[in-house]
């Protein structure tokens, strides 16, 4: 990957994990165990491994969205104590705002930064040209194909000129042909292979790619970190010596893929767990993942809107104290899913249910939110199962009901978020440590 002209210490890694252990739950479960890893400047680093090996957890640690249970995370030689600056993330599920145009979705990547309007427009135009979206800038997400949606996601990440670009399985939600086309576009961008004139936008200093596909890692990465699971740990780090331009049928490309495959097998991991795509979503039955936010955050936004006459501009979200602009947008998405508010262009507006919520006594608010939660499609699937289960159902049974309806990486997060929301509003009786869910009636009997 070609280096940019930033003034940097070439010998200092962009980020480094040292002796990192990560545990979750009660009793605690070890997700990562003894991880030492650095992201070097000017490289594409791929994290390759099966589901459950801690790839996404590693990413969150490296960019400061989580703190390790043990060990340290350093950024530019200093211990990281919050979100890493100059970092952008491309999600696997697009994460576009449906009420905004392509141009405005890309501009969201600039957040509330104080950039001159002319410079802001120039940045957006430049990155739209880079990803091949000029001419579609006024389209809404519902008018785009999956590949175009992900191009918008990539453009939104690049427009801020991040030092570190993180891509969390960015092609897994796409069909094979679209994924391959977009993968080639990313390859061109990260290797600077467009010939005559590069757009006037600073390229990321480094790229961190999460994948479970061997060929994808070999095609894009300079170094490939092989992860083993249960608990997650580094098995091997492979230096990719396949020359550019890389072609899938080249002997050196195929030889490295086989070497990685054999390494995984020798580490007692089944080859079928890696390099295969997730099961496709059931046709017509796809569910929208639930945002990782609390109902109290949603209620707080509803109250804020009510205090300002029932509407507020989208740009003001960065001032809401929710931790980050992106997180604020997730709160908005949750409010829309619960039919408490509506976003139109760049403003938010309370709906009738939102007004009812803030006008009701505090003691009544859980019931009102419960009605909203019960109307969610995921609730319409799971609540009857819980109610018909003779009082108790295990989480694995609920998870099976969602299989094929959500991307594999999103399923456990969405199930956990639903159970938190349903428990908060007394729709179910759930104790995370018990790994079982009881009906609301059983709580009343107890």
In total, the number of domains comes to 2
- Strand arrangement across the biggest beta sheet: 6-7-8-3-9-10
Please give the count of helices: 15
Give the C-alpha Rg. Answer: 23 Å
- In percent, how much strand structure appears in the residues? 15-25%
Structure classification: alpha/beta
In whole angstroms, how far apart are the ends?
A: 62 Å
Say what the CATH topology of the largest domain is.
Rossmann fold
CATH superfamily label of the largest domain? P-loop containing nucleotide triphosphate hydrolases
Biggest sheet, in brief? Answer: 6 strands, mixed
**Which runs of at least 5 residues are low in confidence (pLDDT < 50)?**
1-8, 193-199, 268-284, 318-325
Assigned CATH class of the largest domain: Alpha Beta
Instruction: Write down the overall mean pLDDT.
Output: 79
Q: Judging from the principal axes of the Cα atoms, what is the shape?
A: globular
Which quaternary structure do these chains form? single chain
Helix fraction bin: 25-40%
Q: In total, how many beta strands?
A: 16
Please name the CATH architecture of the largest domain.
3-Layer(aba) Sandwich
Can you give a write-up of this model?
- This protein is α/β, with parallel strands linked by helices and 446 residues long.
- It has two domains: 15-86 and 161-273, Rossmann fold (3-Layer(aba) Sandwich), CATH 3.40.50; 295-445, Alpha-Beta Complex (FokI Restriction Endonuclease, Chain A, domain 1), CATH 3.90.241.
- The chain is 37% helix and 19% strand.
- The protein contains 15 helices and 16 strands.
- It has helices at 55-62, 102-107, 117-130, 146-158, 176-191, 214-220, 251-266, 295-307, 325-337, 352-359, 365-374, 377-387, 395-402, 411-424, 440-445, and strands spanning 15-24, 29-39, 44-48, 70-75, 78-79, 87-90, 164-168, 206-211, 223-228, 233-239, 311-313, 341-344, 347-350, 392-394, 428-431, 436-439.
- The strands form four sheets. The chain has a six-stranded mixed sheet, sandwiched between helices. A four-stranded antiparallel sheet has the order 2-1-4-5, covered by helices on one side.
- Strand 4 and strand 5 (78-79) form a beta hairpin.
- Helix 6 (214-220) crosses helix 7, helix 8 packs across helix 10 and helix 10 (352-359) packs antiparallel against helix 11 (365-374).
- It is globular.
């Amino acid at each position: 990957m070609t280096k940019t002209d930033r003034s940097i210490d070439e010998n200092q890694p962009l980020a480094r994990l040292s002796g990192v252990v990560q545990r979750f739950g009660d009793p605690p479960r070890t997700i990562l165990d003894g991880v030492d890893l650095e992201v070097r400047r000017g490289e594409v680093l791929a994290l390759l491994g099966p589901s459950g090996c801690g790839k996404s957890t590693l990413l969150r640690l490296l960019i400061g969205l989580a703190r390790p249970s043990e060990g340290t995370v350093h950024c530019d030689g200093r211990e990281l104590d919050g979100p890493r600056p100059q970092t952008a993330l491309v999600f696997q599920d697009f994460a576009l705002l449906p009420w905004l145009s392509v141009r405005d979705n890309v501009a969201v990547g600039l957040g509330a930064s104080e950039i001159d309007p002319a410079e802001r427009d120039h940045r957006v135009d430049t990155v739209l040209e880079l990803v091949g979206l000029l001419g579609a800038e006024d389209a809404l997400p519902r008018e785009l194909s999956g590949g175009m949606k992900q191009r918008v996601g990539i453009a939104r990440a690049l427009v801020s000129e991040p030092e570190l670009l993180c891509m969390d399985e960015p092609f897994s939600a796409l069909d094979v042909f679209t994924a391959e086309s977009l993968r080639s576009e990313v390859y061109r961008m990260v290797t600077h292979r467009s010939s005559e004139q590069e757009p006037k936008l600073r390229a990321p200093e480094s790229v961190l790619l999460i994948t479970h596909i061997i060929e994808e890692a070999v095609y894009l990465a300079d170094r490939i970190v092989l992860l083993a699971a249960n608990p997650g740990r580094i098995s091997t780090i492979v230096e990719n010596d396949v020359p550019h331009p890389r072609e899938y049928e080249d002997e050196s490309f195929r030889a490295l893929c086989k070497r990685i495959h054999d390494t995984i097998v020798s580490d007692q991991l089944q080859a079928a767990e890696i390099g295969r795509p997730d099961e496709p979503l059931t046709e017509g039955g796809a569910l929208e993942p639930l945002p990782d936010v609390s109902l109290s955050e949603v209620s707080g936004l509803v109250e804020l809107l009510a205090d300002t006459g029932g509407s507020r501009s989208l740009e003001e979200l960065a001032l809401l104290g929710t931790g980050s602009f992106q997180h604020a947008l997730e709160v908005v998405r949750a409010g829309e899913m619960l039919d408490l508010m509506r976003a139109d262009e760049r403003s938010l507006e309370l709906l009738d249910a939102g007004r009812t919520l803030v006008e009701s006594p505090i003691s009544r608010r859980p019931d009102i939110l419960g009605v909203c939660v019960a109307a969610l499609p995921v609730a319409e699937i799971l609540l009857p199962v819980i109610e018909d289960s003779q009082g108790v159902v295990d989480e694995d049974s609920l998870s099976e009901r969602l299989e094929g309806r959500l991307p594999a990486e999103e399923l456990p997060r969405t199930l956990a978020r639903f159970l938190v929301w349903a428990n908060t509003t007394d729709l179910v009786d759930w104790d995370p440590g018990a790994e079982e869910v009881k009906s609301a009636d059983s709580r009343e009997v107890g």
